[in-house]
Specification:
single chain
Length: about 140
Amino acid sequence: MNRKREIMNQKKMTMRLSATLLALALGACAGTGTVVDEYGKTDKPVFPDVSKVTMDAREGVYPDKDALQQLRPGLSRDQIYHLLGRPHFAEGFRVREWDYVLYFGKASAERKTCQLKVLFDKDLKAQSYHWLPTDCPP
């Protein structure tokens, strides 16, 4: 009887540990830590480390300036995807922030690296855009 109880306790502990590890793993994929309100706004955007980009950005992503001029509140994810491509970081499923690394300029010596964060409201419509550094795009 004691052995049976011991096995049951081990199974319970294993299930709890598995659930905890799963929660931690999912939490790690849930964006950069920017607190986004239901209106798609934040006072303190958190930008990801550029070295953690998940797409093949060795050649760089040089955005179409016309596409950047079309960014405005109310765009859907599909519209943002059409203008900028897929987000450059693995931010998780159904997150309300997308991050991009964009390059401006022609030669690598003149190239300026900028980060763009797009924040979505509770209905997943883009509502705010944040640049790092703040003087981007040039």
